[in-house]
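I hope you will forgive my troubling you with a question about protein structure. The matter concerns a single protein, recorded as an amino acid sequence and a row of backbone structure tokens. Please examine both parts with care and let me know of anything in them that strikes you as inconsistent. Thank you for your consideration; the sequence and its tokens are set out here:
***
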Amino acid sequence: MLSPVALATWIAFCVPQADPKLLHVLATVGSGGEAYLITEAGGQTRVPASLPEGIRWLGRDIPGERHIGLTQIPAATLRQIGIPQEVALPECANLAIGWQLWSDAHMAAQVKQKTPMKAISLAFARFHDRQEALETPYSQKAVDMVLNFRPVAPAPLGSPLYFEVAAAAANHHAMLLRLEFPGSQLGSAAALAQWSRTLLR
């Protein structure tokens, strides 16, 4: 499980354009800061010991719906946008994809709900539960966390934790470039690189 400072460091390193409070909540409310958490439809969870083990495990044909990684992205959403679950598991990718999907949900929610906290609640329900519901157990928990959130500073540049996050992110990126995902929009390293540049611009 990532400490609050470690999570803040991953956020600052991987998704600097994000609202750190909202992304911190997004990465905590569903997973509790467990980087490789995979949750099945029945509520059963699995936390692989390592990223390669998690990727192998995701490749198994297990029936039922899943939520993937730090931000607990619904596997159905990933299928809809053509991103393999394996790509969405590492911390940087999960934070970036999760933030983009939550931001899209929030933009749509603001059209329906003019009250800021109601729009945030609807965005969390859209993101996680894929529902047009103002309140779900997940969104209620998320809103409570947003209201009670205390700022957490990331590890300073040059600190051991910062270098640890930077090295892990580079290793994950290199590993993803070696993977092949036939039949997906990310079927080549070039496509993955282009997608990364587009998502993180």
Q: What stands out?
A: The first helix runs from residue 4 to 14. The beta strands are 38-40, 45-46, 66-68, 73-74.
